[in-house]
Amino acid sequence: MMSNRLHKFATRNCQVLFFVGTYFAYLAYVLIIFPGDSGQNEGAGILLAKILGPAMELGFYLFLCRLLFKVWERYGNVTCKILYLLIPLLVAAIYSVQVYSLHVSDNFISILAIENSAESRLIDKASLYPLLAAAATWWLLYAVCCETKPVSPVVSNGAGGKQSSIKALAAVTAILLMGQIYLFSTQQSYGLIGASYRQVPISSLSYNYVEYLKSKSSYPSRRSEDIVRSTDKFPLEKKNIYSSVLPFSKTDAAPKVKNVIVIFTEGMSAALLGSYGSSHPGITPNIDALAKRSMRIVNYYNHTAATYRGLQGQMISGYPRSGGSGSSSAWESGNRSDVLSKIHYKSVPMILRDMNYRTYFMSPHHDSVALNTLLRSLAFDKVYSYESITQELHPNSAHMTAGSLSDEGLFNALKNLLSTPAFQASKKSFFVGTYNIGTHAFLDVDAADKKYGDGSNPVLNRMHNYDYQLGKFLRYFFASVYANNTILVFTADHSTYPDQYFRKVVSPYYRPYFVGEIPLLVYDPGLELPAVYDAHGRTSVDFAPTLLQLLGIKKDYNSFLGTSLFEPNGLPFGVSALGDQFFATDPEAVYYENQIPPKYQKEFNDQVDLVKKYYSLESENQIFHPVP
């Protein structure tokens, strides 16, 4: 008897049970398991918002489904039946994926995550599949209960209780829709990487996806009042790379030939390095030793993110609009890489080629990854991929990280390239760039790698292991002839993604933006460099002209937006652009576009217009003229 009553109750209230159960399961995670707001104490208002937000959101979908069910029950509308069955499935799927996102990144799915969805291959999905399975099972129970409900659709044109019930449900649903619209309007993250107490799963995802589509749907139009006022087809082109005299004297043994090695570290913030003030002793001893031999540039920030924009942007001194993935305009979308490869820029490898340099870049990825296509479009003489490295330079490298070449394998391959007799025999100067994968967000080191301390923090582990692998190459480098004729630059493609593990190791006052101070160490055997050089908040858009000034390459046609760090650029701050999110940087802080200090506001607006102008020219392939 009791089981029959329970069955009857469940079948008559399947929608209520489904959404109330979903609500309490989500609330339990948010309030008990998920740390939220970096574990800081929460006031009653924040706690109330966390409770009421999902209640309002799920309440809307509950009443919508009940309304659809009543319409089907009264009129036999099959579309309504399909919707009241599928909407809960969509709700369960989105809530599961957002809980997973909170678990792995301390954040709901953001615009940046959508733009870089291809990087999800690097994330351990072991916890996602059980969540999706639980959501599917929960929905299946709901569907079975709905289908076994002892009700048959009856078509009737008369008035009655059911008609009144439909009107009442429609009224409540309309009121809750207004609440849902309000929730949608509160989902902006203001550039922060981290879940806000105002955010709720479906509204947050909807808001971010709409903003993402808006940013990709069109490029800014060209206007006569734009910063770059020119009727030329290529208005950014100029002949000089820099104008000031380098403020450093040459050493007595300055080499006639200057080679260049640039080590781009995946996602490394300066705060993780001992030489930049890390509070974790012994975390990066080899990089710290390099810093003692080098000029350490401070208050220097990434000008964009993530990797695709970061590497390309530094090599062309610009703000590329397209990221790695996430839309039809991204590098990893269909044949889009073929289209993007045809946009003309003047890159560092092109300028060095004009100066009779040979240029190389080492990527840990397989050739199927579009990052290698991007690198080849920059006109390096050769881009080494996982395939060519393991075939030509490091055949015995079986150790992989997240399906790509490990950091150990990468630096062994770099050493092997420099040691090759044919490479050493060439009379041409060279440029070699490298990019690694082992320090990527959401990764941890393998069992055989070096862990830091008790091994509990993956951010510290991967930085410590990276330092260890790099240290082996540095010992080779400084014992070789290259130490006397090669500039060695250590930097990053962008700052560290501020997940919960990164937040635990930085200042409690840190604001989790994907813009932050990054390292820039310059070892130059031909110059008397200071131990420390202050960039005063400038960014990596200045990387290319800075490097070329160190090499003494003053004149070559270019379309650089950046200025060498060794000469003034007329701005008291730097500008970072992550698609349509803009930031200002100075030695004191990073400022999101709605928090710009009044003293910077006018110049900041001008710089944002300049970046948007760059986007427009890029979309029209008018950054630089075609180069044979």
List keywords for this structure.
single chain, 628 residues, alpha/beta, Alkaline Phosphatase, subunit A, 2 domains, 8-stranded mixed beta sheet, 3-stranded antiparallel beta sheet, 20 helices, elongated
Question: How would you portray this structure in words?
Answer:
- With about 625 residues, the protein is an alpha/beta fold.
- It folds into 2 domains: about 1-215, no CATH class; about 255-620, Alkaline Phosphatase, subunit A (3-Layer(aba) Sandwich), CATH 3.40.720.10.
- The protein is about 45% helix and about 10% strand.
- The protein is built from 20 helices and 15 strands.
- It has an 8-stranded mixed beta sheet with strand order 5-4-8-2-9-10-3-11, sandwiched between helices. A 3-stranded antiparallel beta sheet has the order 13-14-15, with helices on one face. The chain has a two-stranded antiparallel ribbon with strand order 1-12.
- Helix 9 packs across helix 17 (about 460-480).
- The model is unreliable at about 150-160 and about 215-230 (pLDDT under 50).
